[in-house]
Amino acid sequence: MELRHLAGFVAVAEELHFGRAAARLHMSQSPLSQQIRLLERDLGVELFERSTRSVQLTAVGHMFLEPAREVLASASVARRAARAGGRGEIGRVALGFAGASSAVTLPLLTRAVAAELPGIEVALHGPHFSAETVSRIAEGALDLGFATVSNPRGLNTRLVRRDPLLLAVSDVHPLAERSSVALGELAGEHFVAFPATRGSEVRALSVRSCLEAGFSPAIVQEAPDSFSLLSMVGAGVGVALVVEAARSIRLDHVVFVPLEGPPPVLPACLVWRQIDESAVLRAVLDVAGRVLPTPE
What we know:
alpha/beta; Arc Repressor Mutant, subunit A; D-Maltodextrin-Binding Protein, domain 2; 3 domains; seven-stranded mixed beta sheet; 9 helices; 11 strands; elongated
């Protein structure tokens, strides 16, 4: 039993037509028919019922189809792994991520790397605030990370998302029914925010935006992560300014309200060291360049 015989069988089984299957495989019909006969002879069973008008799978053919697909898929993975090894694309990348701000981009990258680079393991570290991620990358503890930063010294960045701020309130808050709210209307509210000491760009932009709107936010509670912060909002502890990506965290009793006018925006970037020239990192960055969105 050869892989090309299995590929021919799967093509005929899916097309149920030798001519179309041969065209799909870029070969003529006669060699394909011969491959199927050799496969049936090797297995000692008939895989297809043939007539002058149609081709149908036998009961055995139906049973054989899925295992044949799995063998071909495994062979494809093995082939890609061997080629990756030849290019030096075998190893491990330590990837730091934030909370809500990585919810959109992180799965796109990790799934694509798993599919395209089977020789590379992506080890996730987080969630961290942006300053923590940048510091760990600069120190070499992380190879790559998502962070809301602009041109940090000694590091390369690639913009992958622009995240506007919006308001999170309890579903019983008077502003929950609004289609939008001006920042100045929040002057008398209690706020929940991320810690001031851990380098949260969301907190820094939120405070700066409130000051520009004419008031200093009354922060009554700090939360270590996005889930905790939104849980406090839902419990009525206070309101919060969060990034758009926080919508991916679905909690009962929390409502998101857009801000009026052009909202404050955080740039979400992929960050890595300028001096890191490893083949493994370059391969992951190549994948990132293909699968991560490029903001306008």
